[in-house]
Amino acid sequence: MCGDTIRHHGMCHYGECHYGECQPASEQQIIQYPAENEEPDICNEEAMTLGTGHRSSKPSLNIILLGESGSGKSASGNTILGWKAFTSEPSSKPVTTECKMMKKRIRRTRVKIIDTPYFFDDTLKEKSTDILRCRELCREGSLCVYLLVIQIGRFTEGERDILERLEKALQTTVRDRAIILFTRGDDLKEGSIDSYLKNTNADLQELTKHCGNRYQVMNNTDQSAAAGQAKELLEKIAKLILDLDKARVFNGNSCIIA
């Protein structure tokens, strides 16, 4: 790829068409995952390059966070990373106004986590460019999973048809590779996400069904809970990849999951 990587305060911004690899801003910001909650291997140890018999050393996975402004995309990206990389703060206007990416290695798997603005915000200046970049991420030959981020207790009119609009904008069947990520898990109190979905409105139930009933709850304000929830999410991502890509080969970063 071409162009220069722009680094700013520990953040990787998109250059012209090149991505860089950043490190956590400080050790104090790192969320430590419990030893017993070791992150799952996205590509298992038998991953091999088709036709060569050699193991691939660079399997790659793109995790793209999608959803409305204020839904918790940036905070969720930080939870998955294990450190605070994306700007996440209360605001009456969108905080994330362009696509941003960070990298992390999960066992042998290179993972890119992409935080996105709300693509249907008419105030965005680079909306079409950001959408094009997200299209390219799933056409590079890497594994790709979408996390559709929705806040518990807030299901807006715009979210009723968000799946269809995303699929039109990204020109791909997002639902086949989507997991719904419900944020503000602490709002469930003593209840469960399963109970919440059973008693929620029909439109949200239908959206969940369109995404294969794949979902995960996340409490980004509680680090001890978030670590376990991030592990559960990665396990669901691994299962989705196993279901969809077990016989797929990736150019240069080949990864067959058996």
UniProtKB/TrEMBL annotation:
Transmembrane segments: none annotated. Residues 58-258 form the AIG1-type G domain. InterPro entries: G_AIG1, GIMA/IAN/Toc, P-loop_NTPase. GO terms for cellular component: cytosol; endoplasmic reticulum; Golgi apparatus; mitochondrion. One of its GO terms (molecular function) is GTP binding. The keyword Hydrolase does not apply. This is GTPase IMAP family member 8.
